Each structure stands twice: as C-alpha cells, then as structure tokens.
C-alpha cells in the first residue's frame, strides 16, 4: 500500500488575499493550490483517487464540474460535489479537497 495524502479546506484565495468572483476561476485556483501541495510531496494529478467540491450556489455546479474535467481528464477519481449553505468567507463560491495515494 502506498502513502496517502489528504489536502483539505482549500479556498480560492490568491497570495494577495483577493478572490476572483468567477466560480470557474475559483475552481482553477483551488486545484492550482492543491496540486502544488501534492507535487511538493512527490505526487501528481495521476495519484488523485477522490475529490470533494463544495459549492454555495447549485447554478455554479456546471462551471466547477467542467474545470474538474479539464484538470483530471482520463484520471477519473471518485468525486462528490455538495451544495452547502455557506463557506467561511462570503466571497468564496467553492472550497475543495482531494485524497491521493502514492505508490511506495
């Protein structure tokens, strides 16, 4: 069995603290942050086995899901998208998590 990596509570915040209002841009920013963390630990998008996407507005689901498809292509991790009442910062339209398993 390989090493398990969990990246959780990832918000769409830029280094200067700003948040783009577009849900697709927010989704890309979350994936950028999470995949950079995964790469720092020796993993890659191919190692992702599960993702969770939390959205505030169900109308953003298609845009957020499309970004997931762009990122993962043929990888096809188990994935859940959940509509929540709110996130910690009202500017956030999405928050995400991933789990990855690296071979020994």
- Indicate the CATH architecture: 2-Layer Sandwich
- Nearest-integer average pLDDT: 96
- Give the beta-strand count: 4
In DSSP terms, counting alpha (H) and pi (I) runs of 4 or more, how many helices? 2
Strand order of the largest sheet: 1-4-2-3
Distance between the termini: 7 Å
Q: What overall geometry do the principal axes of the alpha carbons give?
A: globular
Strand residue content: 25-35%
Rg, please?
13 Å
What name does the CATH topology carry? 60s Ribosomal Protein L30, Chain: A
Order of helices and strands: EHEHEE
Outline the structure in words.
The chain has 104 residues and is an alpha+beta fold. It has one domain (3-102): RutC-like (60s Ribosomal Protein L30, Chain: A). The protein is 29% helix and 30% strand. The protein has a four-stranded mixed sheet with strand order 1-4-2-3. β2 (48-55), α2 (61-72) and β3 form a beta-alpha-beta unit. α1 (23-40) runs parallel beside α2 (61-72). The N and C termini lie close together (7 Å). 27% of the residues are buried. The mean pLDDT is 96.
């Amino acid at each position: 069995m390989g090493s398990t990596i969990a990246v959780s509570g990832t918000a769409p915040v830029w280094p200067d603290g700003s948040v783009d209002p577009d849900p697709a841009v927010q989704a890309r920013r979350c994936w950028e942050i999470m995949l950079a963390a995964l790469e720092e630990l020796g993993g890659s998008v191919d190692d992702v086995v599960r993702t969770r996407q939390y959205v505030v507005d169900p109308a953003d689901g298609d845009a957020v899901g499309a970004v997931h498809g762009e990122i993962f292509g043929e990888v096809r991790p188990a994935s859940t998208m959940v509509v929540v009442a709110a996130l910690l910062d009202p500017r956030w339209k999405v928050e995400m998590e991933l789990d990855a398993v690296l071979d020994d």
